[in-house]
What does this fold into?
Amino acid sequence: MTLRYSLLALALASLLAGCSTDGDDGAKGEPGAPGISGPEGQPGQDAVRELDIQVVGRFASGIYGKSAAEIVQFHKASAKVFAINAASNHIEVISLAGLPTAAVANPVSDNSLTSTPMSFPASVKVKNADDSETELTLGVANSLAIQGDWLALAVENAVKTATGAVLFYQLDSNGSATFVKAVAAGALPDMLTFTPDGTRVLVANEGEPDTDYLADPEGSISVIALGNNQPADMAQHINFGTDMRFSSKLIKATDYDTDAKRMALLKASGVKFAGPDGTTAAQDIEPEYISVAADSKTAWVSLQENNAIGIVDLEAMTVEVKALGVKDWSQYRLDFTNKDEVIQLQHAPGVYGMYQPDTIATYSWNGATFIVSANEGDSRDWNAYSEDIRVADVVDPDEFNLQLSAELQNLYDVSGGKNGLGRLKVTSALLDEDRDGIVERLYAYGGRSFSIWDAQLNQVFDSGDDFGRIAAAVLGNNANSSHSENKGDDRSDDKGGEPEAIDVGTINGRTYAFIGQERSGDLFVYDISNPFQAAFVAHYNNRNFDVSFELDDELANPCDSSEGMDCTEVPNAGDLGPESIKFISADDSPSGQPLLVVGNEVSGSVTLYQVSEK
It folds into this structure.
């Protein structure tokens, strides 16, 4: 065996030696056929780009705590910002001509921009169906919108539960306004917007009750057509009764042909109702904010107190109401008490947050429409009815005298009882849902976040507890401060920093969401170019927490010293109460740089931010 293997090895060695590179290679063979191509790789994801945010101009009205700078819009032809001054009931027209591209020296106290006031009439005449006219006495202006050279102004009636109006103006290249006509809307027109194609104005008529519920008008949406360069004399109206539809094939028309049936279906789907007995669905639903798809065929309207958004079919003139669900605070962290005067974020099993968005906006991705929402939260809190309670009231023998589940009771005890979880404000409308005397779930106001939803209102992204964690990291115990004084942790028991305003804009091909928190003044920026991979980009707060002041915006004079108020340092405190945000693209900007315009209702200031990539 050994000899055989040795001869075989010798033969193999000789064969390999014949193939040595030292020998003659001989003729080469033909190249082989190309191999099969592998599968195409997935497209790469662009890295998140860092943004530089700086204040380049600011207008300060000098009026504090009275909504002296609320809703803001921009007119490109005149390079002017229009801002509602509800305190003086006129519009501030602020020129951006010569706006610098360098940051101002002191952003919190800058007053480099000036304004010219634009007034509107105290009463207007509106057309009726029989071609007669009715004169309306007007109250406060609530919203404005600009498209091209048209300006539309939403003004409530002097009696807020009565019919309001939309005033139409034509703007010239200097920003001067010429009144065209007034059109009747619903009760308390709170917000309005043009459709992208410019053919209609949509109005969210909130229809709030008076504080004693002696009058409670229905919420509605007014649709005012624009044709032949003129607004129609009368609006069409979409209400939340006969114009409501349900999409399920299992639901027949007869299943919602009465208010009781509609309310039962909506409640079963998760829509929240809170009001005195006998309140109808149409009365309880109060439209807050409208945004429209790029094709101008569909709109979405936030129904804040109901924790829902309505899908408006502008061709069929109907609305479908969809509940938004709730956030499980056992999966995230929040600060739910202001008594410890420090920011302490913790999980809260058994506590759920209703998203309850205020401002919403829309944008497109891959041909589909997505809705972004600022999840502020709100309650019904009137003299005749209030749902607003604290968790401590739930177990109080003199209040609700209910028992908490073991899970909630443990959190209540560990956190400090009435000064811990007991401080959190929740709704009484959703207590003890199975009526067994034990509260298994508590529902707090607002998501303390922003969300992205698809066109059918399936949530594709939520910022979770980002806002609380980022603000705590940057501002420390100044986070969750009120806008009425520099007192940190003051709003932890309510709705946190309260995400109020939101807008969407594109910078160098990337799409960003800009979210302002009403109470603490934070500005958050997220890259939402891909709605399924949204990412935090930047945080900014134009506020000086080192000065001392106190005001009360519920007083006739918010700075009344006889009530202990002191507004001496408010001019040095920075921006308080951001209420609205308007993005101006680089193409439309007078400076050639992307801009954000922010209306701050408590400090009465309008602030211009330049936003650019670093």
User: Anything to note?
Assistant: Residues 1-25 have pLDDT under 50 and may be disordered. The radius of gyration is 30 Å.
